[in-house]
Write a structure and sequence with these properties.
With about 375 residues, the chain is α/β, with parallel strands linked by helices. The protein has two domains: about 70 residues, Urease, subunit C, domain 1, CATH 2.30.40.10; about 290 residues, TIM Barrel. The protein contains nine helices and 22 strands. The strands form five sheets. Strands 6, 9, 10, 11, 12, 13, 14, 15 and 16 form a nine-stranded parallel sheet that branches. A four-stranded mixed sheet has the order 3-2-1-4, with no helix packed on it. The protein has a four-stranded antiparallel sheet with strand order 17-18-19-20, with no helix packed on it. Helix 5 packs across helix 6 and helix 8 packs antiparallel against helix 9. The longest helix is centred in the N-terminal third of the chain and has 17 residues. It is globular. The relative contact order is 0.15.
Length: about 375
């Protein structure tokens, strides 16, 4: 939302997490100054421009905790020569309803990690305010993964899990790293998790063969997140519940998941969301997000993008090219979630997982307006123009 020159009162808004219709007051700096039940709105005095949304849902924009690139650029391929494309990606994601994101660096060489982190650190120092998604930090997905569950990650760049190797990856850029995905069952898990938490880096478990007891131990050590639930980890099993089952019942743990219909079946997502209190949506989008279907380079290999799904030549699922909010629309279309919960999973839940404030007084009023056509189970959104 452009900075407003006048105060705004948004009336009759349904807001995820709030009961009943709300009035949202926006000050002349574009910040939320009050949130009141509509019936109490008159107690806020002032000269406001009024926008009545007629019972539509209103939320903050999405937060994407796991996105691997955009507009043809993979984040591990960042360099001084292509750094300017980050501005295009930030604008594109804003247009897709995303307020902020964590560029995700998948397993690559130490040199590539360092080069990409250097570019991202420099960009974060000068990133612009206004109508553009903000880089909130970096998600390192690897290189400390279980070889057997590496998925599309290149095996030659996996490293043993120890503090020395973690320091090599972080280099001088530990302050911009927000999340690191690792396999906790690897030797050195306890020491590394403690070290990362001492640096205020969130530890996410993924690409792992951890048993339920190994996962529970990692949560005691300080891990608090799971990377793309169900994918690259043992399946739920009635006698061997595994990492994911331990995470789903632990109130300290947030679980990212992909809702493209390919990574996880809608039926299993229904089971998952009925059981997991800490779920949040991610896109896991790869570099071709924003580009048409076709063949694209991916590290030294190629991926095929077809109907929003990315696969390696051997058929290995590599990711998607569907923006984050498509997942919200899918959850509603599949009948898995009510509109409020679906919106919450992409806007409020990832903020909570990252320790960020949600929809509240003092937040920038970068708002989305959602329209639900019940007859066709169709959910659409637009940036709220005020």
């Amino acid at each position: 939302m452009p900075l407003s020159v006048s105060k705004i009162k948004v009336l009759n808004a349904r807001v995820p997490g709030y009961a009943g219709l709300q009035a949202i007051f926006i000050d002349d700096l574009g910040m939320i100054s009050h949130i009141e039940p509509v019936e109490s709105a008159d107690r806020i005095s002032g000269n406001f421009k009024v926008l009545d949304v007629g019972g539509d849902w209103v939320s903050l924009g999405g937060i994407d905790v796991q996105i691997n690139g955009g507009l043809g650029l993979a984040f591990p391929d960042l360099s001084e020569e292509n750094a300017e494309k980050l501005e295009d990606i930030c604008r594109f994601l804003w247009e897709q309803g995303v307020d902020g994101f964590l560029p995700t660096l998948v397993t690559t060489s130490v040199d590539n990690f360092q080069r990409s982190l250097a570019v991202l650190a420099e960009f974060m120092e000068r990133q612009k305010e206004g109508e553009t998604a903000k880089i909130l930090g970096v998600h390192l997905e690897g290189p400390f993964l279980n070889f057997e569950k590496r998925g599309a990650h290149p095996a030659e760049f996996l490293l043993p899990l120890n503090i020395e190797n973690v320091k090599r990856i972080l280099g001088d850029y530990g302050e911009i790293v927000k999340v690191m995905t690792l396999a906790p069952e690897l030797p050195g898990g306890e020491e590394v998790i403690a070290y990362l938490r001492s640096k205020n880096i969130i530890v996410s478990l993924g690409h792992s063969l951890a048993t339920a007891s190994e996962a529970e131990q990692a949560f005691e050590w300080g891990a608090s997140m799971v990377t793309h639930a169900f994918n690259a980890m043992p399946s739920l099993h009635h006698r061997q519940p595994g990492l994911l089952a331990a995470a789903m019942v632990d109130p300290r743990v947030a679980c990212g998941f992909i809702a493209d219909g390919e990574h996880v079946s809608p039926l299993m997502l229904d089971v998952f969301l009925r059981s997991c209190g800490g779920a949040f949506l991610v896109s896991d989008a790869l570099a071709p997000v924003g580009l048409p279907d076709g063949f694209y380079p991916w590290d030294t290999r190629k991926i095929e993008v077809k109907n929003g799904t990315c696969r390696l030549p051997d058929g290995t699922l590599a990711g998607t090219t569907l923006p984050l909010l498509v997942g919200v629309q899918n959850l509603v279309k599949w009948g898995i979630c009510e509109v409020e919960k679906a919106i919450f999973l992409a806007t409020e839940a990832p903020r909570k997982a990252l320790g960020m404030p949600g929809f509240s007084v003092g937040r920038a009023a970068n708002l989305l307006r959602w329209n639900f056509e019940k007859s066709g189970e169709s959910l659409s959104w637009q940036r709220l123009e005020v």
